UniProtKB/TrEMBL annotation, chain A:
GO terms for molecular function: ABC-type ferric iron transporter activity; ABC-type quaternary ammonium compound transporting activity; ATP binding; ATP hydrolysis activity. Its EC number is 7.6.2.9. InterPro entries: AAA+_ATPase (IPR003593), ABC_SmlMolc_Importer (IPR050093), ABC_transporter-like_ATP-bd (IPR003439), ABC_transporter-like_CS (IPR017871), ABC_transpr_FbpC (IPR015853), Mo/tungstate-bd_C_term_dom (IPR008995), P-loop_NTPase (IPR027417), Transp-assoc_OB_typ2 (IPR013611). Pfam families: ABC_tran, TOBE_2. This is ABC-type quaternary amine transporter.
UniProtKB/TrEMBL annotation, chain B:
PROSITE patterns: ABC_TM1 (PS50928). The keyword Transport applies. GO terms for biological process: transmembrane transport. One of its GO terms (cellular component) is plasma membrane. It comes from the Bacteria. Its main location: membrane. Pfam families: BPD_transp_1 (PF00528). Belongs to the binding-protein-dependent transport system permease family. The chain crosses the membrane at residues 45-67, 79-99, 111-131, 163-186, 206-225, 254-282, 302-324, 336-358, 364-385, 420-447, 467-488. This is Iron(III) transport system permease protein.
């Protein structure tokens, strides 16, 4: 059963098409991340689902009820959707309690127990109830915004880049608190983000939006390990892409013979590896020259130049790092994902870590 | 949209009146009325007073702002309040204070001193705000590149202050052009006083209208010049994060001269008027203070000011809302036309409303609604600027969130939009209220017969050289204006002071 079904939704602003036929199904009780680069239409889609904007074509169904697409669209206030905007969007003239209780029926607004339990749900101290929004940290504001959205027990919660304005340190804590609160209430949630790590770690399924259409909808592991095309692969994580010829489930490449992770017809292919699959050693094997080393503490990223001149990255433990300029041997663990070059695939975008 | 357009149309009535009147007189008539030695003399008088006042105000305002914001001069907070204080004393009261002390003060120098001291805060306040908005990191960087304090001021701070100082200078120039009371009392003739004299002599002959037309042209020239000089470039602080605090520049041996200069400005602009007022108050009350009349006049003034504040704020709401929420050429045009209407001196607005009310609705001539309309045209920008700022502060996001929480449109207006706008609306209304309390020119021309306000009562007494009898009215006006001045000095909000207060 889908809590939310979006079918063939298109939307243009003036002559600029933003959404070009998006289909998206969100099962009840799950969290879906809507992932895409800036300007790919994520926020527009969210606003259409929430009812702040109307689609040009296509339908939006909530729990089997059509709310946009057939006849008059159902206004936002009758959709029963909780909305958590980017910066929290707390009402500055109301206290925390006033904000949380805003969507409750009048008789329930004065119920302090209700507010306290909602604050507890998002991991906040009930003593904050009488504070003003500006007295809260960014992370606390974000949690109050979630409590406010959850208060009327919505069928669906939409979160628009809820963590992007937070410091790295606050972000992780806030993200965990938000996920825990969503799980605890069994709420269905759609989270918009441009941060791959956030999408992969938070969601049950990730929808990659690209150029106004859905490029892939999959669970995080499948998306990362078995992406549909190289573009998606490069978008959800740093990619090592090599050329080779597939013969009987194996491919000969610059980094030696690789085992393919899925069925592939014989012929020319490009294969995808992830930087953490590359192991560096002083021993025998395919050689590469170290161009640069970025040390992060918990691990390190080593940029390598292969004899062909191609540059690839390896992620290794931070313990025993080769110096820049050194010659190292490269071994590959695990399997590679093949993309036959017979079928045209878009060139991968520059990889981002 | 329609409401806002109607408000803009109201604001443009005075300009329209001048254009229509000029068309009626025809080119030869205009030439006869305008190309006269008397007009040339007025032009010279007006231009040299405006030019002089702008120069003095910019030097005083920027210099004082630098001392208060960037130097280690002792007592910076106190100086700040004292430097804003002249705003609490209407220019015609300052003028009265000086002329009643020194009867030989009716010279160009005297007029320049009075208007400069009265209007220097118009440059000082935006300059202070701009200094506060400057990223000190830029100044540190410049110092790191080897610039002296003077070099930092000239090459880093001054270019960034340009927009603020130009805005302030424009305000000073428009105010001096529109100033009536102060200059009439000093017997320094400019276009504004000449328009008034013409009006008194011939009631509403084409002579007055044509002089007003020249005055309006001068205003428009100033507005265009400011737009040209300001340029399109904006200066934004690059990078987010809180700006670091400023380390004030030590003055060393220059501390004493700096203190002396500040003290001189404050003594001339605040102490002299207040001492003079207190002196005349003492003489006046010894002859017997008519408490009942004073109370009635104060009551009338407060009632008029309250009504004007409500009317102007109501007029400002659609325009302020439109300017933010429906951005576009039409909204900008409407907003700008209200500003343009208000850049016109009060004497011209009053004159136009006299004519229009007599021609179109004779019953309305010299009634409260026409007076309120004049106040609204004069002070709309103050209300619009604050309403606009409040609307900016309440992004549509809150409306969306409230809708997703199930609130209907009226509920959203009541529970979200109005509470968010209330402080801004209140501030705008307060600014208009205080401006009306000390308004003289339009009130003199438009007030119903028998209605006296503090300003007009003060005016008739001091015109008759009854300085003692005038003092109590001036004191009440200063006392009523003081709270707003303290507020202004606290949160530097220069944008709220657009538009003239003649």
């Amino acid at each position: 059963m889908s809590a939310l079904s979006v079918t063939g939704v298109t939307k243009s602003y003036g002559r600029t098409p933003v959404l070009a036929g998006v289909d998206l199904h969100v099962p009840t009780g799950t969290t879906t991340a809507l992932l895409g680069p800036s300007g790919c239409g994520k926020t527009t889609l969210l606003r259409i689902v929430a009812g702040f904007d109307d689609p040009d074509a296509g339908t939006v169904e909530l729990g089997g009820r059509v709310v946009a697409g057939a006849g008059r669209p159902v206004p936002a206030r009758r959709r029963g959707i909780g909305f958590v905007p980017q910066e929290g969007g707390l009402f500055p003239h109301l206290t925390v309690a006033g904000n949380v209780a805003f969507g409750l029926p009048r008789r329930l607004r004065r119920d302090r127990g209700r507010v306290a339990s909602l604050l507890e749900l998002v991991g906040l101290d009930a003593a904050l109830a009488e504070r003003s929004p500006h007295q809260l940290s960014g992370g606390q504001q974000q949690r109050v915004a979630l409590a406010r959205a959850l208060a009327p027990e919505p069928s669906l919660v939409l979160l628009d880049e809820p963590f992007s304005s937070l410091d790295a340190s606050l972000r992780e804590d806030t993200r965990r608190a938000v996920v825990a609160a969503l799980r605890a209430t069994g709420a269905t949630a759609v989270l918009v983000t441009h941060d791959q790590a956030e999408a992969l770690s938070t969601a049950d399924q990730v929808a990659v939006l690209r150029g106004g259409v859905l490029a892939q909808l999959a669970d995080p592991r499948t998306l990362y390990r078995d992406p549909r095309d190289l573009d998606v692969a490069a978008f959800v994580g740093e990619a090592v892409v090599l050329d080779g010829d597939a013969v009987g489930g194996r491919v000969a490449s610059e980094l030696g013979e690789l085992v393919l992770g899925r069925e592939c017809p014989d012929g020319p292919v490009r294969v995808l590896l992830r930087p953490e699959q590359l192991r560096l050693s002083a021993g025998p094997g395919p050689r590469a020259r170290v161009c640069a080393v970025d040390f992060y503490g918990h691990d390190a990223r080593v940029e390598l130049e292969l004899p062909s001149g191609r540059r690839v990255s390896a992620r290794t433990e931070g313990g025993d790092l080769p110096p820049a300029g050194a010659e190292v041997a490269v071994a590959v663990s695990g399997t590679a994902v093949p993309f036959p070059t017979g079928a045209p695939t878009p060139a991968p975008a520059p990889a981002t870590a | 949209m329609l409401l806002a357009a109607a408000v803009a149309a109201l604001a443009l009535v005075p300009l329209g009146h001048i254009v229509v009147a000029a068309a009626g007189v025809g080119w030869s008539g205009i030439a006869d009325l305008v190309l006269r030695p008397r007009v040339a003399e007025l032009l010279v008088n007006t231009v040299r007073l405006v030019g002089g006042a702008v120069v003095v105000c910019v030097v005083l305002g920027v210099g004082a702002a630098w001392l208060v914001e960037r130097s280690a001069v002792p007592g910076r907070r106190v100086w700040h309040v004292l430097l804003v204080a002249p705003l609490a004393v209407p220019a015609f009261v300052t003028s009265y204070a000086w002329i009643s002390l020194l009867p030989g003060f009716d010279t160009y120098g005297g007029a320049l001193l009075v208007v400069s001291l009265s209007y220097a805060p118009f440059v000082y306040l935006p300059a202070v705000a701009a200094f506060r908005g400057l990223d000190p990191a830029l100044e540190d960087t410049a110092r790191g590149l080897g610039l002296s304090t003077w070099g930092v001021f000239r090459r880093v701070q001054l270019p960034q202050l340009r927009v603020a100082v130009l805005g302030g200078a424009l305000l000073v120039a428009l105010h001096v052009l529109a100033e009536f009371g102060a200059l009439a009392m000093l017997r320094y003739p400019t276009f504004t006083t000449a328009v008034y004299d013409q009006y008194r002599a011939t009631f509403n002959g084409p002579g007055a209208t044509m002089l007003a037309g020249v005055l309006v042209l001068l205003c428009l020239v100033l507005l265009l010049a400011e737009i040209r000089l300001r340029g399109a470039r904006g200066y934004a602080r690059t990078g987010a994060g809180a700006a670091r605090t400023v380390r004030p520049v030590r003055l060393g041996a220059l501390t004493a001269p700096a203190l002396l200069a500040l003290a001189a400005v404050v003594v001339l602009s605040v102490a002299v008027p207040l001492v003079s007022l207190v002196r005349w108050m003492a003489t006046g009350t010894s002859a017997g203070l008519d408490v009942a009349t004073l109370a009635t006049t104060t009551g009338t003034t407060l009632a008029l000011a309250a009504a004007a504040a409500v009317a102007t704020t109501v007029f400002a709401l659609p325009t302020g809302w439109l300017a933010v929420r429906r951005r576009g050429p039409v909204a900008t045009l409407i907003e700008r036309s209200t500003y343009l209407g208000s850049a016109v001196p009060a004497i011209v607005i009053a004159l136009a409303l006299v004519t229009v009310s007599i021609r179109l609705v004779p019953g309305l001539y010299q009634t409260v609604p026409v007076l309120l309309a004049a106040y609204a045209i004069l002070f709309l920008p103050r209300a619009i600027v604050t309403v606009r700022a409040a609307v900016e502060q309440s992004p549509p996001l809150h409306d969306d969130v409230a809708a997703s929480l199930g609130a209907s449109a009226p509920a959203r207006l009541w529970r979200v939009t109005l509470p968010l706008l209330a402080p801004g609306i209140g501030a705008g209304a307060a600014l208009v209220f205080l401006a009306v309390v000390t308004e003289l020119t339009a009130t003199l021309l438009l007030a119903p017969t028998g209605t006296t306000t503090l300003a007009t009562a003060f005016w008739s007494a001091s015109s008759a050289l009854e300085y003692g009898a005038a003092a109590p009215y001036a004191v009440v006006m200063v006392l009523l204006s003081a709270p707003a001045t303290v507020l202004l000095s606290r949160d530097v909000l220069p944008a709220a002071r657009r538009g003239p207060t003649p």
